[in-house]
Model the fold of this input.
Amino acid sequence: VVGAGPDYHSPVPSPYRPVTDGVLSRLREVLLDEEVLRDEEQRQAYARDETEDLRFLPEVVVTPSSTAEVQEVLRIAHEERVPVTPRGAGTGLSGGALPTRGGIVLSCERLNTIREVDERDMVAEAEVGVVTDDLRRAVAERGLFYPPDPSSSDVCTLGGNLAEDAAGPRSLRYGSTRHHVLGLEAVLADGSLLRTGGRNRKDVAGYDLTQLLVGSEGTLAVITAAVLRLQPAPGETLSLLAPFDSLDAAAAAVEAVCRVTPRLLACELVEREAVETVARVTPVPDELRGAEAILFLELASEDEGALFEAASALEAVLRERGSGEVKAARQAADQRRLWEVRRRVGAAVKGRSVYKECDATVPRSRLAELVRAARETAAHHDLLALCYGHAGDGNLHVNLLRGDLDDETWSDRMAAAEEELFERVLAVGGTVTGEHGIGLTQRRFLERTRGPRAVEIMRGLKGVFDPRGILNPDKVLPDEVAR
Amino acid sequence: VVGAGPDYHSPVPSPYRPVTDGVLSRLREVLLDEEVLRDEEQRQAYARDETEDLRFLPEVVVTPSSTAEVQEVLRIAHEERVPVTPRGAGTGLSGGALPTRGGIVLSCERLNTIREVDERDMVAEAEVGVVTDDLRRAVAERGLFYPPDPSSSDVCTLGGNLAEDAAGPRSLRYGSTRHHVLGLEAVLADGSLLRTGGRNRKDVAGYDLTQLLVGSEGTLAVITAAVLRLQPAPGETLSLLAPFDSLDAAAAAVEAVCRVTPRLLACELVEREAVETVARVTPVPDELRGAEAILFLELASEDEGALFEAASALEAVLRERGSGEVKAARQAADQRRLWEVRRRVGAAVKGRSVYKECDATVPRSRLAELVRAARETAAHHDLLALCYGHAGDGNLHVNLLRGDLDDETWSDRMAAAEEELFERVLAVGGTVTGEHGIGLTQRRFLERTRGPRAVEIMRGLKGVFDPRGILNPDKVLPDEVAR
Done:
C-alpha cells in the first residue's frame, strides 16, 4: 500500500482504487504542475493535522486554485473511485483532514481570494483558503465585523471553520461559524457545482443545504467559497479577570455570570495547571498566577459608562459566587496581555506532551459536574488532565497528557479515560464535541450521542450527496462503507 | 373523492390510499374520542390557512396530545399509505398546512405544554402547539428573552415557526427562528422518534439534523417539541419613525441605516397605501399619515444615554438620506401605539380584499430595485400592489390585491404579475421567500431559485426521511411523487 512505513500508521485496507499513473496523468492534464505534489517530502506535510500523533501519508496532494479545478479533480476521483480528503490549514483536532485511505489530499490553500467585501449588503464573499484573521482584518478596514474567533484564527482557514463549525470565545454572544453563513459554493462528489443560499439575510426556499453542509467535515461536498454575514463593530471592550480558589467554584459561577448582561461577549475558564503550562514557555503576568482557576470575561458596548456599569454588575455576581478580587482591563494593550495567555494555552499544552484533547460540552449548569468528571477520570486512570475553554458555552477542552508513558500504557489509559469522561458527559445531557467535530477519532461516540435512528438518517444523507463514498472516508459516520 | 365539493378546490388525484373505516378505527384505538374529528363542520376549520382563498377538505383531523400519540398516528398512516398534513395555528401564507390530498390533518394544537424554562441553562423546552407569545411571556417572567417575533405571534405556534423558519422585525438583530433552536424532538414518517441536538449551546456531533428540519415545512418529519436558546433581556428600547416623500428613497435609505449601530433591533418599511389600509379599520395616529413611506426603527440598550446617542446617530443618517422630521418614542405606551400600526398592516390588507402576498427578499442594497419592480409589475398587469415588511432584512411583502376582479381575470393577472416580480427579484440575487416558505404555492419557483442540482439533492433528502412520501405531500418540492 502506498504510503505505509515505519513513520506512519498503515492506511486502513481500502475498497477504493489507488492513485495510478493513469489517475496522475489525468490530474496533471487539468492542474498546473505546481498544483500536483508527488514527492514524499511534500506529501509528508499533509500526512497529519493537530490530532494527537496520527499520520497517514496521501498518495498525491493537489492544490487547485479555482473552483473549476476542484470540479475537475472530483470528476476524476469520482470516475476512478479514488478517495479525496479535503484539507484546510491542518489545525483540526479530531483528524478530519487525515487521509486514512491514502488517495488524494485536496488542499484548499490556493483558494485564497477574498472575492468581495460588500459594505452595503454587509456581506463578504471569500474562498475557503482565506485565513480567518485575514478576513476579519479585511472587513474591519471597512468598519465591519466578522465575529467567529477560533483560537487558531491567525493560521486556520475559513474552509476548516465551515467544515467543523468552528467557534471561539465570542461565540458566547455571536454563535459559532454557522450563524454567520448566508450561502455556499461547493463541489459535489461527482464534480458538479452546488450553490446554496446567497446574499439574502433571510431565505426559506427549500431545505437549508447551507446549514447541512456547515459542520459536515468535508464528507458531503467540498466547500469552495462562502457568503458571510457581517455586523457593525461591537464598540469598546473591557475585560475582567476573576480568580477562584477552586476549579469547582469557578465552573459553578459561570451560569450566574452569563445571565447578568447582554453585553457579555465571552466567558472563558483556565485552570491553574494550564496557566502554569503557559508559564513554562512564556512570561505570564503575576495577577494570573496562584489562583486555582480563572474566569476571563469580555464585555462590549459603544458607550463607556454602560461598559463600567455592566462590569460592576458582573463583579458583584462574581464576588457573590466566590471569586477573589476581580481585575478589570480597559486599555487595549492590557486586554491583549490577558487574552494572550488564554490564547496560548492550547499551543503550550500541545508543546508540553503528546495529548488527547477531549472537546467535552455540557449544558451550562452542568459545568461543575464536568470539571469533577475530568478530575476524577484522570485520577482513576493515573493521568494528568488540564481543563480550559469556552465555559460560557459549556465547552471545556479536557486535555489528557501522555507525559513519559510508554506507547501501550498511554494508549490504554487514554482510551479508558476518554470512555469514562464521555459516559459521564453524556449522562448529564452533554455532547462529545462542541467545536472540534467527530472527524476520525470520535466516531465511536456518535451513536451513543445521537441515537441509532439519527445515525441511520445521517448515513442516508451521506448516500444522497456522495453515493460512491469517495469524500473524506472514515470521518463522521462510525462504519461508513464505500459503495 | 372524499372532500370534493363546490366550496373546495378538488383534491389532486392521489396515488395515496383513502382514510377507510379500517384506518379510522385504528386511529380511534390509539387516540381519545375527542382527538379524532370526522364531522364535516369540524373538518372545515382545517381546510384552509391564510393563503389566498385556497381550501382542501381533509378526510379526518386528529389532534394528538402527546408525542407518543403522534408516533401512533404516523405508524398507522405509514402502514396504510395515507397522506398526513401537519398543522400549527393555520396562519401560514404559502399553503404549507393545506391537505391537498385529503387524508389526515395532524393538528398540533393539544401539544401545548411548556415543559420547562431553565434559567440556569437559559433554555426553554416547549411543545410545538404553544403559542409564540405565551412562550415569550413565560420566559420574560424569569427575566429572560426569546427573540423571534413573527407578526402573528399572538396566535401562531412554535410548530409553524419551526416549520417555516419564521422571522419578524427583530430578526434584523437576532436572526430567524432557526438561530434560537438547540434541539428538536420529532417523529419520522414511520412513527419512530428522532431527537436532534439537545441543551448544549454548541454541538458538532454529526450532521446538523436540527437545522435541516427547521424550515422543512413538515415534509421531513413532524416536530413535536423544541429546546430553544434564551438570552438576557435586551434592556430599554426606543423607537424612531422616519417619514419619506418617496417609497424609493425610503427603500434606498435602509442599507445606510443598518450600518450605523449594533443597537438597532428592527428596521421596517410601510408604504402609504398600506397605512391607509389600516386607517380604514382602526384609527391611525396623525404622524403616521401623509408620508409616501415610513421607516419604523427600534433600538435597544441597557443604558438610556447610549440609547439617545444611537438615536441621534441614526437620525443624522436618516436625514442625510432624505427623511422628513424623525420622531422618537421612548415611553412604552407611545412605542406600542406606533408598532401597533405596523403590526396591523397584514390583517388590514387581508381584510380588504382577496390578495396574493409575494414574500420577496433581496440583498439589502437592492431594496430600491425591489420596490420599483413591485410598482412596475403591478402597473403592467393593472393590479393594486402594497409593499410593507422587514426592510432591514431585505424582505418586503408585496401584496397584490384582487379588488373586484372576476375569477379568471384575477387569476391570470396575479400569476403573470407574480411571475414578472420574481423574475426581477431573482435577477438581482433575491429569493422567492424570506419567511413564508415554498409550501404549496411557490413550488414553481424553487428550481429557478435554487438550481436543478440543489433540487435533486433535496429530493434525495426527502426520500431518506420519508420514503413513502406520506408527509405533507405537494409541499416544497415541485413535482414530488409518492413512492
Summary: Chain B is about 35% helix and 20% strand. Chain B has a mean pLDDT of 94. The longest helix of chain B spans residues 332-352.
